[in-house]
Amino acid sequence: MPARVRAVPTLDTVAAEAGVSRQTVSNALNSPHLLRAETLERVQAAIDSLGYTPNRAARNLRTKASQLIGLRLDPFVEGSASGLMDRFMHALAEACRDCGLHVLLFTAEDHTDPLDGYEALLGSRAVDAFVVTDTYRGNPAARWLSDRRVPFVAFGRPWDDSRADHPWVDVDGRAGVALAVDHVVDRGHQRVAWIGWHKDSYIGEDRRSGWVQRMHERGLATSKLSARGDDTIDFGRRAAIALLEGAAPTAFLCASDTLAMGVLQALRDKGIRTGGNPAHEVAVVGFDDSLPAQVTDLTSVRQPLEEVAVELVRLLDERMTHPMDEQRGVLLTPSLRLRSSS
Amino acid sequence: MPARVRAVPTLDTVAAEAGVSRQTVSNALNSPHLLRAETLERVQAAIDSLGYTPNRAARNLRTKASQLIGLRLDPFVEGSASGLMDRFMHALAEACRDCGLHVLLFTAEDHTDPLDGYEALLGSRAVDAFVVTDTYRGNPAARWLSDRRVPFVAFGRPWDDSRADHPWVDVDGRAGVALAVDHVVDRGHQRVAWIGWHKDSYIGEDRRSGWVQRMHERGLATSKLSARGDDTIDFGRRAAIALLEGAAPTAFLCASDTLAMGVLQALRDKGIRTGGNPAHEVAVVGFDDSLPAQVTDLTSVRQPLEEVAVELVRLLDERMTHPMDEQRGVLLTPSLRLRSSS
DNA sequence: GTGAAAGCGCTAACAA
DNA sequence: TTGTTAGCGCTTTCAC
Prior knowledge:
Two copies of one chain form a homodimer.
Chain A: H1 11-18, H2 22-30, H3 37-50, H4 56-63, E1 68-72, H5 84-97, E2 102-106, H6 118-123, E3 129-132, H7 140-147, E4 152-155, E5 168-171, H8 173-186, E6 192-197, H9 202-217, E7 226-229, H10 233-245, E8 251-254, H11 257-269, E9 283-287, H12 291-295, E10 299-302, H13 305-321, E11 329-332, E12 335-337
Parallel strand pairs in A: 1-2, 1-3, 3-4, 4-5, 5-11, 6-7, 6-8, 8-9, 9-10
Antiparallel strand pairs in A: 10-12
Helix pairs in contact in A: 1-2, 1-3, 5-13, 8-9, 10-11
The structure holds a DNA duplex.
């Protein structure tokens, strides 16, 4: 018996089946309110029985939209990543689905060129908009895209560009660290140290300011209680040792889980117990709630990536439907994931 | 001064500029060998000067191909994931780029339905093929896609379905563990324990068989040296304690980094040093080279995800260009990432 | 409320 | 080697 290859149904197929014109079927799909209830039902039945699904390419060609959001994946840096990208992509894909959008992944041929890849996708109209995530390098893509009036939304504030007027979503690192300060201070800690990144990191300084500000609000001193350096375990370890020999803090707040791992190591090496009781334990709090934090039972500030994704897509959607609206930023507050390290 | 909106160039624009027909421009792009060198040059110049890029939607409509590969992102399981997905998506996006393909992310509306999402993308011809990665659940999507003759490639062997005839790429866990056995045995360890997953896990048993087989090949015993259980830190810890009180192994090979984390904890609690010297240290080896492994300096078996991605895309490409070719599987060998835990 | 006409931008097939 | 014709499947526009 020869396999009967059923031709893929098109609008015409459905129209013939339902005894209406092609256009009516299209309307049934895109503007059902235009049809008489009875007609709609008949068309619907034909669609169902034929298993018709509109052809994306044809629709894209006609509507000049692809319903695709471009996301550039930058090179995977071994060890340095806190593994947030995984969670973020998930969240983004999910958020997109709710708007009938999809995420298209792309990579740069030349990773050192922050603009590489965008132009090709844009020129071929393969995507409608971009989500830009590389906020650590000062986001040169943002300005380029802005200048070309490409619809995009950034995950990350335009720290270094006060004239930037594109929509963005970011996580309030300062508020997250303030949360951590409150947490350990509420537990009775008074000498609360900060271990962070170099001064030239906007994000690092933002997080640090949460510590400084909230400590002062709680009437606690911060002098001689902080260190700045590379985002490495080793620096975390060394900084912790140095601080312990000096001001002897009973709590360490860190700009990253990586640094916190170093603190944990230092405490272990010195035989100091980790935990929330300031009487005989030292509390440690990280940032990002990464896999290592979960594994080592480290309290950590967790970025609300799911919310971030939803907001990004919402802004994108707004931007695509009402391009004239004023752009704005959205700042989301992280939460504290409490674990045994505090 | 009114902003002059330059119309987006099309084939016709370029053709007019170059003084040739639309088709010739198309050929210059897709079959340049058909053109006379001089014509090609002229067309090329017109393309460059106008900044022309072919419209994807139009091309897709005409060629009935989208150059898009669908990848379903399954729900992010907190803590359980070893964070490989991040690296894998990177590698896949990169491999796709080299073939002019792109990855389209999608998620299921109903996560419990392993087929959800595939049909819609397929019906609308939004993607040309799929990469299926959910091999842990026995891969029900594979059979469904196979039955519908949907082009797809699986990351993971069809363990439970000997009749499966789709192309796949997988990592040889058995060989990876054998590597780990050799490593510790070469360093002088003789009592080498295995801590793995429950017996119903194909992957777990495959990895375990690498231990059993290679141990015997090296003339070493395996009895009373293994444990099976949940993939949790806690089980790793408990299993390690139990084994230490019994056969007192000097090396632990684990089916996952998670389990290895537990072993590390147990050793630390007992005051046993970790390292490669069998005289006074216990060696620990994990599997997956996850972030926690990197952070805790744990030796681990590393899956060659970059190669996996390249092979997946190669098979996909083959399958899409010569659909009649016989399908086959590709088994790749992992490597051992040596660190201080061994 | 429904249908007919037109055309989005491209490439396959064929003619010149 | 280049040009012409036709049409992929859809939606916008406008007539009925």
